[in-house]
Amino acid sequence: MYLRKLSLSIVAMIMAMPHAAMMGNNTATTPVVLTESGTDPFATLQEVITALEANPGTNWEKVNIEALRLHLVEMQDMTINVDVKQQYIDNGFQAVVTPTTNRAVKSLTRVLSGHPAQMKAETGWDMQVQNNNGVFTLTVTTKKVHDIAKIRGLGYIGVMAYGNHHQPHHWAIASGDNPHARHSMKH
Q: Could you tell me which residues come within 8 angstroms of residue 58 by beta carbon, excluding any fewer than 6 positions away?
């Protein structure tokens, strides 16, 4: 398990470095490698605080741990506080995601406002989102025949968790940069 986590950390560092470098002013003299994905909010917050402490370039006037906490709550809501029904469609899948709490409706509204663009940039997959009075229909498709089975297997939560953007995204939020400036998900 230790070797797996270590190798995943190295891969995350390699994949995250260019993205993290574009994220703002709190640049470490050595690459910041976060390993927590965000599914354990306290562990993620603790890891980020430790990294901020170790970074001599941390601008504590910009740090915003509360913004990261709020984002992690949103991640928990879209993971736990939803009912999901999925079906295969041509070239992908469709999921109807019904939030089970009012807070989950707000969280999904914010998270899904930016995720389709991130998904497209990272994978080339198309994600369309329709909000029908707080019930979200996600349609995820691809023109890449070899990816159809993958996105179907991933389904709703898999495509939401997919990729290497979460850790650099969390670093940007906590260190005071605003990765949400171009869409409606603001903390």
A: 26, 52, 175
From the centroid of its chain, how far is CA 1? 23
Angle ∠(10,35,177) on CA atoms, nearest 5: 105
Distances, alpha carbon 70 to alpha carbons 42, 181, 187, in Å: 12, 16, 7
87 and 136 both lie in a single domain:
yes
Query: 104, 82 in Cβ contact below 8 A?
Result: yes
List, in sequence order, the alpha helices (H) in the chain: 2-21, 41-54, 65-80, 102-123, 148-161, 166-174
Number of domains in the chain: 2
Q: What is the pLDDT of residue 187?
A: 45
Q: Are 94 and 137 in contact (CB under 8 A)?
A: yes
User: 59 and 106 in one domain?
Assistant: no
**Does this model's pTM top 0.85?**
no
Least confident of 9-13, 39-43, 56-60: 9-13
Q: What ranges in 81-165 are assigned the alpha helix state H?
A: 102-123, 148-161
Residue 126 pairs in a beta bridge with 141
